Amino acid sequence: MANNYFITDHCIIEKGKVLHNGQEVFAMPEAAFPDFAKQAYKHLNTDYAKFFKMDNLSKLSFLAADILLKEYIADGSNNTALLFANSSSSLDTDVKYNDSIADKDDYFPSPAVFVYTLPNICMGEISIKHKLYTENSFFIFEAFNPEFFAAYAQALLDTAKADRVLCGWVDFLKDDYKAFMYLVSKEQGTAHTKENIQTLYNN
Amino acid sequence: MEALKQELKEKIIDVLNLEDIAVEDVNDNDPLFGDGLGLDSIDALELIVMLDKDYGIKLADPKEGKAIFQSIETMAKYISENRTK
Amino acid sequence: MSRGVAITGMGIISSIGNSVEENFNALIQSKPGITVIENITTVHKNVIKVGEIKKTNGQLAAELGLAADNNYSRTAMLGAIAAKQAVNNAGITDINEFNTGLISATSVGGMDMTERFFYDYAESDEHRRYILSHDAGDVAHKIADQLGLKGLVTTISTACSSAANAIMLGARLIKNGKLDRVIVGGTDALSKFTINGFKTLMILSDTYNTPFDNDRKGLNLGEAAAFLVLESDAVVKQQNKKVLAYLSGYGNANDAYHQTASSENGDGAFLSMEKAFKISGLAPSDIDYINAHGTATPNNDLSEGRAIIRAFGNNVPEFSSTKPFTGHTLAAAAAIEAVYSVLALQNGVVYPNLNFKTPMEEFDIVPQTELKEKEINHVLSNSFGFGGNCSTLLFSKS
Question: Pick from C294, C188, C222: which is nearest to C15 by CA?
């Protein structure tokens, strides 16, 4: 199945490491995520001040997407659809936000935190930076589901809804995080099969 | 007034996560939104929460924020005239 | 040309009624369901109004026949009630007779129980069973359990356009032959979480919401659930099913502008409408009624209005927002409005946009304010979510 399409590029961010096509491009294995993300941002020359306003899930997703989308010109013509999923939804930020409304005597819910209490906001951040006016969807699964990703990306490409699909499993909860992202298109690369997707995910 | 301005600069940088901007970089009359510090509508809402939390000032309409948050100068003036804590 | 994907069943529970019929009667009799909040204790009780379903969790559980120690969130109970209605309405007796899936949308998931019991969890085990029902994905699995459904179950979460995307995904799975039948829709219960969040964004009205009015002050939150049954042409033919309407088009685009605000000229909204037209083969001039997203926030209505003008030019058909009836029901909004769109086709009515007084100064278009009877062949329904996620659905007469 899906032999007309290929995985052209992929990226993994987990445990303080950034891997691009299997090569380590940045590592700070001991650091907590906020510090790691900040240093990775600097190392990757990502010049985008709004990065620092994002929540953890958005920072994680944004960094991974930026590596894969850097070579495309952000002029609104890039027809790359976004297909994301995870298992924790936006729970990491939901908990932070919930803490701000838990104490009746210190009751100041933060608008800047609330806006990130939806998982698909990270796709919005990526779309804003890369001017992607394309189809976006965010699914919640119990675990990584390569079969679903493979079938859905293929359907988007088969029906010409997109020229390329950026697939992403982006999960963040407490100190545990993982971003696995890859681009699928007609350009040459690794065959787009659920087995290959699983292999790349396992790294 | 000078102390309040200094305090506001520190708070804004901290609360709004303005990475790579130092207190010295912010002039009293620099516009906070648009070309100045590049703040956006969510930042404005966050500043409204800050007015409430730290100075006991409640704004009912986000549009009121526009005039108040023009610059550090206008913010300091408004806070010193209206603060309840 | 294909007419689209057949809709053979619908179910709904909202603040204006506990069934499709009750909802329709409220709409044509201009009876809104916006009130003071009763089921949740909140400091904002006196300054907000909501579209609340006047049933307690106990009453909902009894309706579903759940055991006393069940761990259903309110979101899951509302969803199960609406999904069961939809399945009955479609005349389905054996849910697993065909390859059947469930795609459910939610944004709050089990948050209502989490916020109620979060601090008790550490102290006592009385409510700990709800921890497992916090996940957004749990809602869909609970609904599947209630239906006895064994096929594909998945959850979609793209804020206030979630249900539109669930409906769109279901249609695609039918078209691609991956499923024969799919139950699609969304559910969201009111929670302190969303009330406080929208409050801090300062987009909650302190009175009744007034979409497309120049003096609009923001939205009323609401709670609801609605589901549709979509079936393949083969199943419809084989079972000689009555088709309520067809889902003839759908589109999704990102506004690429801001985390929560819509762009000035409604770029994402315009693109999602354009994509839906392209899929359906319909032209803007074919549309007889637009069920607008129309949340009554200053930002949405201006952006959406401009996008509608961009898409329809000088020939904007009658449009209205039904949010003054139900409030903004977040991830369920597109599903309840899908039910309303199908009812508009079946009954030839344009619903009134309640509470409208003053036209907006930025443009000339005004919503339909009185109930209007006319022949309706095609309805366009918009739903836009935070994160710039914009979706459009097109419904056509069977």
Answer: C222
Q: Mark whether C127 is an active-site residue.
A: no
Cβ-Cβ contacts under 8 Å for C117 (sequence gap 6 or more): C127, C130
* CA distance between the termini of chain B: 15
Q: How far is B45 from chain C (nearest CA, A)?
A: 7
Return the structure tokens found at C238.
């084989």
Which of A38, A108, A115 is closest, CB to CB, to B52?
A108
Contact list, C387 vs chain A (CB under 8 Å): 118, 120-124, 136
A3 pLDDT band, cuts 50/70/90, is low
Please list the residues that pair with A6 across neighbouring strands. Answer: A185, A191
Nearest Cβ partner for A135 among C119, C178, C253:
C253
Q: What does pLDDT average to in each consecutive run of 10 residues of chain B (85 residues)?
A: 95 91 92 85 94 94 90 96 93
Cα–Cα nearest to A123, from A111, A114, A132, A113? A132
Task: Give ipTM to 2 decimals.
Answer: 0.90
CB contact under 8 A, B62 and C200: no
CB contact (8 A) between residue B38 and residue A108: no
Judged by a CB distance cut-off of 8 A, whether residue A4 touches chain B is: no
CATH T-level fold of B2-82: 1.10.1200
- Can you give the residue ranges of every domain in chain A? 6-202
| Token pair for C133 | 């029902």
CB proximity list for A40: less than 8 A, separation 6 or greater: A13, A18, A26, A28, A63
Cβ distance A147 to A128 under 8 Å? Answer: no
- Is C215 near chain B, with CB under 8 Å? no
Q: In Å, how far are B48, C38, C173, C186, C293 from C203, measured between CA atoms?
A: 14, 21, 36, 23, 15
Give the start-to-end residue ranges of the domains of chain B. Answer: 2-82
Chain A environment of C157 (Cβ under 8 Å): 89, 118-120, 138-140
Domains, chain C, in order of start with CATH, read: 5-239 (3.40.47.10), 248-397 (3.40.47.10)
Give residues 240 to 259 of C whose Cβ lies within 8 Å of B.
258-259
Contact, C160 vs C385, CB < 8 A? Answer: yes
Give the rounded distance of the alpha carbon of C357 from its chain centre. 26
Chain C residues inside the 8 Å CB shell of B45: 200-202
Query: How far is Cα C283 from Cα C378, in angstroms, rounded to an integer?
Result: 10
Give me the DSSP letters along A127-155: HHHHT--S-EEEEE-SS--HHHHHHHHHH
For the whole prediction, is pTM greater than 0.90?
yes
For A108, the token pair is 């100041």
Min Cα distance C261 → chain B (Å) is 9
Superfamily of A6-202 according to CATH:
Thiolase/Chalcone synthase (3.40.47.10)
The stretches in chain C having pLDDT less than 70 are 1-2
CB–CB of A119/A86 below 8 Å?
yes
Q: What tokens were used for C84?
A: 């069961």
Residues whose CB is less than 8 angstroms from the CB of residue C241 and which lie 6 or more positions away in sequence, other chains included: C6, C8, C90, C91, C231, C235
Neighbour subunits, C (≥3 Cβ pairs < 8 A): A, B
Q: Are strands A17-20 and A190-191 parallel, antiparallel or unpaired?
A: unpaired
Q: Which of C127, C141, C258, C293 is catalytic?
A: C293
